[in-house]
Write a structure and sequence with these properties.
The protein has about 230 residues and is an alpha+beta fold. The protein has helices at about 5-25, 55-65, 70-80, 135-140, 145-150, 205-230, and strands at about 30-35, 45-55, 85-95, 95-105, 115-120, 125-130, 155-160, 165-170, 170-175, 175-185, 190-195.
């Protein structure tokens, strides 16, 4: 296993928790997460996009400046090693709203056994993500003021597994894909879970391409050989 792959798992977990709970203090946001898991149990892609308004962004900036940094990008890089090219950090403004996107740059193994797990059981792969679960915040779910604040928060989570998903707590499951659409306090109490079949034989894309080329050549060559025999 490439050591950078394993390191990315731990570093990515901490950076996402950092962003999430900073936003939690500030107020409303919408989070879009896209994850793709390979048959080998590696996370092939992990991307989180968090959209907030200018006011929430300003509150986050105030906290960053108190730590002597000039931007969220700088704070993110200094604290979680983005400068080491493990993942990217981007900001995109649309009017008064900004979307912060964190994207993994390479496949990584999961080494946070409590918050993000991928394990194999026989011919099945089980995925669980509780990075954003907070028992402390869930305890306030019966508080009217807390619910009013949480009402502006939402999470949309998209997961692609290597095989057909046979069990999940997702809102929508189609084949090997699952979707969660969560708002309010449930954002802090929902762990994303899916159990999928593992393909018996996984052929790399390059092998498929070579096989396709061979089939095309045979389709052209064999008829030509038959015509030569008749001449």
């Amino acid at each position: 296993m490439n050591p950078d792959q394993k390191r990315l798992g731990t570093t990515g977990v901490f950076c996402l928790i950092f962003l999430f709970f900073t936003l939690l203090i500030c107020g409303c946001f919408t989070m879009d997460t896209q994850v793709r898991v390979g048959a080998d149990g590696l996370v092939q892609d992990y991307q989180v996009g968090i959209t907030m308004n200018q006011y929430v962004y300003g509150m986050m900036m105030s906290g960053v400046e108190q730590n002597g940094q000039t931007s969220l990008r700088e704070a993110f890089s200094d604290e979680y090693g983005a400068k080491e090219n493990l993942f990217s950090y981007e900001e995109e403004w649309t009017g008064d709203d900004v979307t912060i996107t964190v994207t993994s740059k390479a496949p990584f193994s999961v080494d946070d056994k409590e918050k993000l797990t991928i394990r194999r059981e026989g011919n099945y792969l089980i995925y669980e993500d509780s990075l954003f679960v907070s028992e402390e915040q869930s305890a306030y779910s019966d508080n009217p003021m807390a619910n009013a604040m949480y009402s502006g928060m939402g999470s949309h989570y998209y997961l692609e597994m290597p095989g057909k998903i046979i069990e999940s707590n997702a809102n929508v499951v189609e084949g090997n894909k699952a979707e969660w659409h969560i708002t309010g306090p449930a954002v802090f109490s929902t762990a994303y879970y899916a159990k999928s079949e593992v393909p018996a034989f996984v052929v790399p894309n390059l092998v498929w391409l070579v096989g396709l080329i061979v089939l095309i050549l045979l389709a052209v060559w064999l008829p030509a050989r038959r015509r030569e025999r008749y001449w």
